[in-house]
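#struct-help
A.M.: can someone run this one for me? Single chain, 371 residues.
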Amino acid sequence: MYLQKINLLNFKNYEELSLGFSKEVNFITGLNGSGKTNLLDAIYYLCISKSAFNSADSQNILQGTDFFIMGGDFVKNGHTHNVQCSFKQGGKKVVKIDKNPYDKISEHIGQFPVALITPYDNDLIREGSEERRKFFDSCLSQINSLYLSDLMHYNKVLKQRNSLLKQFHEQGAIDRDMLDAYDTELLGTGKKIYASRRDFMKEFTPLFLNHYKELTEGEEEVSLEYASHLNNEGFEADFKKALERDIILERTTKGIHRDDFVFKIGEFPVKSYGSQGQQKSFVISLKLAEFDIIKQKKGFKPLLLLDDIFDKLDERRIKKLLTMIAANNFGQIFITDARVESSGKFFAELPLKISIFNVEKGKATTQKKDD
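D.P.: on it. Structure tokens below:
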């Protein structure tokens, strides 16, 4: 699978843009703030139907306008598919495939899968459990539509239960029958999500460990651990016992929405004991493992987007990553880097078809194009 071309209108700092891409490597250069990351985000948006960086679609509209439209032609299994996403201020987002709108936008997830590596990925290590759940949920949602459906249902019921808890707190009374209905839904769906995450981690972890070993030449021992309230056989009893605390706090304190994924180097947390290079290697290995498992489950390679990933990597780790790219381990790749002198020369010499683009103030020009 690859993205043949993209068209943008009023997306972020792009007033109008039309570009065709190489099937293999696309190297995007330009000064910081020129729009390199915005171009990658547009590609991500076409694949996932949302921005990787802005939760509100209104934040993706070019300043001074009230809408954006983007389109792209994907080639998958020998067939070309046109994807169009549009949003108007005050309206609803519309996502179409081959001119036909989806009944549910969530149906688009996984059709054109993608793995994105950015400088912000270190938040997976530095921030709280929500960031880590988002990463693994995104990966699972691209390979398992039932998982995405279960997750959306769980979050809807969780929101309703929390609203009910707030009502109980304010009124000083509990409607047990109404609460039991929400609890049954939450527990049942939660068990399915837990099982999916648990089974997923059994397949994902070896892929991650292999990539980390390759990037670091096996010098460092790292590990992943899935931590969940549902690991406890007495979880349902604990869930019921937590009701009084839930009412006081006005939120559900037990369940898969509190799951975490523990990252360690040796016996210690990567967050506290890993160097910047080790942390960067850790998150890159997570994202490359995401690429691998999507490829395994979908039967084709997803897009790989690399945004300024050489920052904070030492020369040895950079060379290892570039060796993997040169070996054509991936499908279509999009790479951004402001340091044209240091990295551009290497990419120009890769034994792969490569297109080079320069971005300046929301305009992109083609410097070199390989079909």
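A.M.: thanks! The chain has two domains: 1-112+302-371, 128-298.
D.P.: also worth noting: The chain is about 45% helix and 25% strand.
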